[in-house]
Amino acid sequence: MGRSVLLLVWLGVSVSVGDAFGQTTPERSAAQYVEEVHALLREAGRADIAEKEAAALRERAQQLARQYAARLKDRARGSEDRFHLGYLYYLANDVENMVAVFRELMRDRAVSEEDRQRLRLYLIEKYCESGRLREAEEERAAISPDAFNAKEVMAAAAMRLAVAYTEAGQLEHAMRAQEAAYAAARQSGVIPLAWKAARALAELYVAMGKINESRAVLSQLKDELQRQLSWAEGEAVQTLTRTVAQIESTLAQLELIGKTAPEIAVAKWIEEPPTRLAELRGRVVVLEFWAAWCPDCRGLIPHIRRWAARYEKEGVKILAVTRYYGFNGREVGRASKEEEERFLAEFKRLRELPYGTALDDGQRSFETYHVTWVPTIAIIDRSGRIRYIFTWNENPSLGEWMIRQVLSESASER
Prior knowledge:
There is one protein chain. The protein has helices spanning about 5-10, 30-45, 50-75, 80-90, 95-105, 115-130, 135-140, 150-165, 170-190, 190-205, 210-230, 235-255, 295-310, 335-350, 365-370, 395-405, and strands spanning about 265-270, 285-290, 315-320, 355-360, 375-380, 385-390. By secondary structure, the chain is an alpha/beta fold. The protein has two domains: about 5-215, Serine Threonine Protein Phosphatase 5, Tetratricopeptide repeat (Alpha Horseshoe); about 255-414, 3-Layer(aba) Sandwich (Glutaredoxin), CATH 3.40.30. The chain is globular, with a radius of gyration of 22 Å.
């Protein structure tokens, strides 16, 4: 298997799998099956389609994956075909058949340890989704520390477990898993991975009231990257500089915690009554900075919609803030302000959002909250103070955990 194919697919990067396991055979129907399913999933991820249409496309993709796996099952012989078969089961969310195929594949002596541990990432993901955390931990323990890319794989596995533990409400376990992820990510030398792991760990620390530990993790990574800048060259300089700037913004956000939430500066409200944060004292505010073009923002929508449904009666208010990007639903920088405003109103209806959005006055609100990455969410308590700021890191359950924590308190106790 190519060294990065499985890891890239597992991390959500669209790649061709026709050359899996290092083979250069002509395109097979198995690869075409996978690509057809991927095409449906890409279509479901578009910004300009309705929620029901997107759900229908995802359901169709799952059905096709199941159907194509059945076709391939009896004629999958080589390692490439067996990988495609297992991956189709993965896309179909057929966990038991996926496990059976991937476990058989890992017993194949022709498959390297490097490739086996990438297969383990798929197993860990599905075990976590199924709540089978003991089995996920066993797979993580089986990752060889000596194989190529071992630290990246270890970090990815531990981060997925941290998310699963958060979803289960086991934040101590989540913290320990994320600490292991950060340690492995630092050792890997992959800067974006180290930053992602550090940010996720810092957010867990904040949720658990460990502000100093959160600050220490971010400052440590910042210092390490700044030292690298003295000898870096080419694209590495840009990556390091950008990451250091993002860490500095996150450190600045930590300084906002416990302080009165700054008022947002709004140029226009779209499908939402004008309001001020000061008018919402006595309620818990979930303030989201987002963009319609951002896939991660769209991925967070089902969670925020669920938060609104679950907690609005308990006093939660969702406020969303975006800015002008010239986004017309397909491309950034193509729409006039008026066209973008119309699209945002349509987007609310397409995605069945129970809230509208505010358009930032320039970038004033983004700058006030030190937002350099979307989506970013600030949770504001009933007394109007910021209690938590987190950036999308595939762990929205941590945001919900904080909402419940703040709801359980009264403004007079703060």
